[in-house]
Structure formats: structure tokens, C-alpha cells
Design goal:
Blueprint (H helix, E strand, L loop, with lengths): L2 E8 L3 E9 L5 E10 L3 E2 L2 E2 L2 H19 L5 E6 L5 E10 L9 H12 L7 E13 L2 E4 L9 E12 H12 L4 E7 H9 L2 H6 L1 E6 L4 E7 L2 E8 L3 H12 L3 H11 L12 E5 L6 E5 H26 L9 E4 L8 H9 L3 E3 L18 H15 L13 H7 L5
Parallel strand pairs: 1-6, 6-11, 12-17, 17-18
Antiparallel strand pairs: 1-2, 2-3, 4-5, 7-10, 8-9, 8-10, 12-13, 13-14, 15-16
């Protein structure tokens, strides 16, 4: 029996727990799935600990029952508008340059990069190495073992509000589950839907979930910019509910069954019979009218994505365009509208080449869920983790250690 990996994707609309088995050849097979509606969360943030814990427990129990495994450790997704990121550089003297750069040298360089002014009420989620420079030679991907006397590292640092992180951790650890690592949603999703070529050339990953749109920009194989927008598929549903004067549940069903982002591609005489407020009330609407409501909100979301691209400074450096995932990416016509608004190539990304219980999971809505397992698989398969998170109380000690070679 091989190693098992578990992931808990905690979203605004659903919670998905996956269990995967890793065989002796390092191949992942999904053996447990547990999906349940989310409760106690708003725009990716826990607002009711007891409700969120109960919903997570239900999802975990379903996955355990199907897989036959008890989940004791898991990779857990994190999102929310409290997330922010910055880029930083760390420089250290190599301890024994003639013997080669060691893992400790790399750790000290990362610690030096982290020695930026992080407010006391924020916690580091990821420190992602983007590239290294050894004695002035830049573009180094893996400096371990190289000879040199000066090591520099460019990093992408992701932080979150300490209270929001603590509330999320409390929900999971309250179920006696140890968190292997908190993983930012778009970084997990990227594992499942992006190709190596897209990461190298330059691409935007936009995960449009229920409460948020999570963005990550990848260039030269690494993440260069991340952000979370506080707008998502629930805003679409709310717009439809207002426009049709219909209950939210009806609006959600109509969006999923008949939603389209390009009204111009629909026949003018296509009509829908839907429920309305009032006892047994029904109404007839044009599908084009429904699409116009969706188009307006999606144009706004795409415009916000482009604003982030320009703010990051990488506008014009993304030949691979935009890859969409998340439940909203299943909307018909979304790629056509995206190309019009963004003037970039746009495609919908979904998990692929999966083994095991994959019928439901081969959908853009499960990109983060599957990505958590792939993230964990890659973390355990490499000698050095690609990112790490450092507890608040260790920052000061690490700051001093960064400048004191051993």
C-alpha cells in the first residue's frame, strides 16, 4: 500500500475533500471524494466557526467513508480578500563557497528575503522562490551544489490576515486533522490545469469561484503575482435574481442550465419559463435577456482581471493568455467574451489525466480540489519544498540568522 495524500478545498459555495493514493512509481489515484455545501463562509473567509467546522466534518467523513482511510493530515486551500502579496529579494554570503551551496544557505537567503516589514497582524502563507543569482549569474533555478560566494533569491511572498488564518486553522484542527500546508487557491488550481509551456511563456490563471476570483500570474515557470478579487459567481446569481425578480435558488438553477455570456450568439426568439416571487408564480423571459445580465457582470470581472495584470507590470508579457477555472468557468460563451474584453487568448482549464474516482472531478469547478493533491504530491516528491510558511513567532530569530552564516 502506497502513501496517501488528502486535500480539503474550503470554498464559499462548496467544501470538497479528496483522498489520493500514491503508488511506488509516484502515480496518484483518487480513492475518496467528499463534497458538501459550504456553511459559515463568506467570500472565502470563515464567519461562523461552528458552522464551517460542521460542514468540513461532513465533507471529510464522506471522503473517509468512500476511501476507507482516516484523514489525519491534509493540504488545505485558503483564499479571501484578506490575502495580499509582495515580491522581495534576499542576499547572503555562502558559508563555504568552495564546497558548494548548501540547503542551509538557501534557507538563509529565503529568510533574508522574508525580512521585510510584515505587520504583526499578518501571517506568511507562502514564500515562493522565483529565481536565484549566484555570484552575479542570474536565471539559476536550483542553486543547490553550485559553487559561489554570494547567493541572491527573488521571492514572491503571500500573506494573510492572522485572524482569518487562525479561524480557518481552528475549523480544521478542531477535527483532529493536522494541516500539512495552507495552499493559496490559484496556486493549487494551477497545478491541475496549467501546462508547463504556459507557465514558462507567461499566463494568467483566473479561478472564478462562488465568492471570489483568485488570480495568479506565472512567468518563466514560477508565480510572479497573486491576488484575490472579492467578486465571483454568486454575484452573477444575485444579478440574475434581481433582474428576474426570482429567488436566489431559482436564479442559480437558471444560470447553470441556461446561462450564456454572449447574448449575440443566441436566437432572439428563444424563451425560458422560470419561477418568480409569489405563490406558484411563473414568468417567461428571453434567454438573450438572461445572457445580457450575465455578460454585464462577466465584463466587469474580466476588466478587473485586466486591471490586475496591468497593476502587476506584466501586461504584454503573457503570450499564453488567460486560463479560466472554477465553477463559473463552465458558463457557455465565457471564452468568447473573455477574448473580446481581454484581447488575449482564453481557454477553460479542467483537471485531466486523472486516475480513480474522476467522473465528477474532470470539471473546472474542481481545479483547486485536485490541485491540492497534486501540490502535495510534488512537495513530497522533491527534496526541497517549493514554498514554505513560517510561524509568526519565528520571524525575528530567522531575520538575525539570515545574516549570520554558520
Amino acid at each position: 500500500m502506497g502513501k496517501t495524500i488528502a486535500g480539503i478545498d474550503i470554498g464559499t459555495t462548496k467544501i470538497c475533500t479528496l483522498v489520493g493514493e500514491v503508488d511506488d512509481e509516484g502515480l496518484l489515484r483518487i480513492v475518496g471524494v467528499g463534497v458538501t455545501p459550504a456553511r459559515g463562509l463568506r467570500k472565502g473567509v470563515v464567519v461562523n466557526v461552528s458552522q464551517a467546522t460542521e460542514a468540513i466534518a461532513t465533507s471529510v467523513e464522506k471522503a473517509e467513508r468512500i476511501s476507507g482511510y482516516e484523514i489525519e493530515r491534509a493540504y488545505v486551500s485558503i483564499a479571501g480578500s484578506h490575502i495580499s502579496s509582495t515580491n522581495s529579494r534576499g542576499v547572503v554570503a555562502v558559508s563555504h563557497g568552495s564546497r558548494g551551496i548548501t540547503g542551509d544557505d538557501i534557507d538563509r537567503a529565503l529568510d533574508a528575503a522574508q525580512a521585510v516589514a510584515i505587520p504583526y497582524n499578518r501571517e506568511v502563507i507562502h514564500i515562493v522562490p522565483r529565481g536565484y543569482t549566484v555570484d552575479g549569474q542570474d536565471g539559476v533555478r536550483e542553486p543547490l551544489g553550485m559553487h559561489g560566494y554570494r547567493l541572491e533569491v527573488e521571492t514572491h511572498i503571500v500573506t494573510g490576515a492572522a485572524t482569518s488564518i487562525q479561524n480557518l486553522v481552528k475549523c480544521v484542527e478542531g477535527l483532529n486533522i493536522t494541516i500539512e500546508q495552507l495552499v493559496l487557491n490559484p496556486l493549487a488550481s494551477g497545478e491541475a490545469v496549467l501546462t508547463d509551456t504556459e507557465r514558462e511563456m507567461g499566463v494568467v490563471l483566473a479561478d472564478i469561484g462562488g465568492g471570489t476570483t483568485d488570480i495568479a500570474i506565472f512567468i518563466e515557470g514560477s508565480v510572479w503575482h497573486t491576488t484575490i478579487l472579492a467578486v465571483g459567481g454568486n454575484h452573477l446569481t444575485n444579478d440574475i435574481a434581481i433582474g428576474l425578480r426570482a429567488p436566489f435558488t431559482t436564479a442559480e438553477e437558471v444560470k447553470k442550465r441556461y446561462g450564456h455570456a454572449c447574448p449575440r450568439s443566441l436566437a432572439a426568439d428563444e424563451v425560458l419559463d422560470v419561477a418568480a416571487f409569489g405563490e406558484d408564480a411563473r414568468q417567461t423571459i428571453s434567454r438573450q435577456f438572461l445572457a445580457q445580465i450575465i455578460e454585464a457582470r462577466m465584463e466587469e470581472i474580466f476588466s478587473l482581471i485586466m486591471q490586475e495584470v496591468k497593476r502587476s507590470g506584466y501586461d504584454g508579457l503573457l503570450p499564453a493568455g488567460v486560463v479560466l477555472c472554477g465553477g463559473t468557468a463552465e458558463l457557455a460563451g465565457i471564452t468568447e467574451l473573455g477574448r473580446e474584453v481581454l484581447s488575449l487568448p482564453v481557454r477553460v482549464g479542467a483537471p485531466h489525466d486523472l486516475q480513480g474516482l474522476v467522473d465528477v472531478l474532470s470539471s473546472p469547478a474542481y481545479a483547486t480540489s485536485v490541485g491540492l493533491l497534486l501540490w502535495g504530491l510534488r512537495q513530497t516528491a522533491t527534496a526541497r519544498p517549493r514554498t514554505r510558511s513560517v510561524p509568526l513567532h519565528r520571524r525575528l530569530a530567522q531575520w538575525f540568522r539570515a545574516f549570520l552564516p554558520g
